[in-house]
Queue: 3 jobs
Job 1
Amino acid sequence: MKILHIAAGLDAGGVEKLLWEYCSRIQSDDSSVIFDFVTHEKTVGLIEKKLLASGNKVFYVTPKSENIFRYIREICIIMKNGQYYVVHCHQGYTSFLPMLLAFMFGVKCRIAHTHMAYISKVSKLRRPFTFLTKLFATELFACSNEAAKWTWGANTLDKVIIMKNAINIKLYLYNDDTRRQISKKLGLEGKFVVGNIGRLLYQKNHKFLIEIFSEIKKLKKNAILLLIGNGDLKSEIKEQIKVLNLDDSVIFLESVNDAYNYYNIMDVFVLPSRYEGLGIVNIEAQANGLLCFASEGVIPKDAKVSELLTFVPLDETAESWAREIISHNNFNHKENMESVINDAGYSIDNEWIKLKKFYYNAVNK
């Protein structure tokens, strides 16, 4: 059974990690399942390297925004030659073109998958795009209930399948030895580490995060901000850090293969995103036993799988965020989080089996 996944990039973001966790396990269990991937990001990302090393094909296409006709032609060639049973597109309500083309090429199972919710700046074309996507897709997926409701509509919820952004829980469990080793390597022993993992993009709201950290620094002189990720706003963020005289208090790490290890050296995890479909890093951080603070009304409630996650309104000031964070007295990592994450349905060891069964049932209808 050949399956084509379509995603914007294949670096180290939440969607990419999701694809790797699910697809690698399904392929290891069943060699008759073949996954191919389409991306418009020409830079070879971390997940892409893993996929290529596993023998998967990765096709590069022209972004729709650059040349929509070339994009259509390239997708058509891939689908015509691929003879796919399933096309699984991870572009939410903008999945209508892949869904239409898959319909034209007789693909039996056509999945439109949303990973976003509560986007403030929405295209005027959202409504017709959503209509067309729902018209040509045979299945609608979402990463959370909020993402399903926001993207596909409240009247469609009974038809939407929630596919959990499941993780390999054991990788994220707290390890004191790892904390000591990496803290020593980075010179962070005795520091109060505020952490964030994510692309440096408008969505992730790093500008506000820097403001929050600046206020935390006033309350905790030994505070250090650890940013893991890369993106278009890196130079802008660095300039803000310079203006606030925080150069010696912020550490940048670009995409790393073992990001899960770095949760161990954090004392608190902060995610003031402008919009998220789930925010899988919240699940990862809670698995590590970290105190987490995230945007209220933006981060879906599905992300709160323990009392470790606190929601703070985005319209609160940076000072209010900082005081809320510092008001918590115990920053020690909570251990034994494996059963908590598993009970919430975020264990990849269980969830990949469900997706494999779904694929087979869908093509055998």
Note: The mean pLDDT is 94.
Job 2
Amino acid sequence: MVSKGAKVYLCIVTDGDKGTHDDNDPKERVIARRREEQTRAAAMLGAEVIWLGYEDGMVQPTLELRKDLVRVIRQVRPHIVLTHDPTVWFRHGAYINHPDHRAVGQAAVEALYPAVKKAGIFPELAAAGFAPHVPEELWLAGTDEPNRFFDIAPVFEQKMALLACHASQFPLEKARVVFWRLAEEAGRPQGLAAAESFRVIRLGPRTVDLLAAQFSSPGEPEE
């Protein structure tokens, strides 16, 4: 998307203070390291970072978080919002989905409907200049129900370069094997060497209009 001219914003919900394997690592040092890693990756990607600063490992889908995400969405006014699939608990027989990921995904979904489009929800945001906005699509990552696939074989090395920025989180050579196998698995049903997949939900000012357009067919009575 960036290569095609899209403006990308990364909303980082937590401060990353638990992002270490060393229990003696000072919290302030961990936060600074995680912020530096994310800043470097964002610069490589050409994205702008928005920090919310919630405590790592303790995120809940609260009204406070929902309000913060509504503010961010109204501020940047995106066409697409990409977040974690909050319905997924387990994947690949070896992975429990991080509770922060599920909580952020749930809060983001609940921010998108109906809060972002109604000035009467969190009216203080509208009063502060954050006018309602409806993105065109919601993309859920890490989903078990994908309906959109992208060939990433040509950009896989770029993906690994971005991942390498997060050296404190991933042993790169093992991560390379894991992410390539996952990309192969996602791409195989689509005839692709490597893919990333998402569950895409269309959004709009009125849900009934989207459903009517989706379900309409020739021969139905007209009003």
Note: DSSP finds seven helices and eight strands in the chain.
Job 3
Amino acid sequence: VLLAGEVWVHHLYVAGMPDWLRIGQMVTTLLISVPVGLMVVSLWGTLYKAAFTFNMALWYAAACLLLLLIGGLTGIPLAVTVLTVNLSETAFVHAHFHFVMALFATFAIFAGIYYWFPKMTGRLADGKLAMLGFWLNVIGVNLTFWPLFMVGVQGMPRRYYGYAPWPEFAPYHYVATIGALIIAVGMVVTIVNWIYSAINGRKAETNPWRSQSLEWTHCPNPPGPGNFPTDVTVSEEWSPYNYAR
């Protein structure tokens, strides 16, 4: 939080600021990658030696962390002054931003929707359609934005509606366009699955995730008025993470 208020100047490296200010902002921008990296490592570390079952919520959660990792690693060159002079205002920035913000956030939201879907609708989402939508989205986002990294490194500026002056970049944009179409299909499949499953999906049991938290162990799907049908008695030994017993 403290560093976040200091790193915005890295967007202005090529705006003619003094060298001493550029160097200072480079240091703070690189430092902010330390807590973010620790967060990613700690989140992945929770899966180490864990007994878990891959469901759609976990698939999307794992994918969003992978996308955040890609976005974070590609942000390091943008923090280094000698590199960002060549990468600033190129398609590289466009791809980096989408990985670290748009894609990460979207996949995290989808993970939450699949996790809470039984609680919201009382039904389970169709697994086959969900998996189809997941892989279409994963493949689509990578086909769309990795080519933008490549053309950005080669110097193609962003915010251009066409690329006629650079015909050598056309193959990359063809691939990116195919990826965008795959994303569109994946989103349609996902949304159709939510609508279909909310109407015709298999009824969810009270605790489909075998969770220890009270909203799953003592609350029906979907919950009625007041959430819990009766008063909940919680023992002193209760813990939402007590999966070992």
Note: The mean pLDDT is 88.
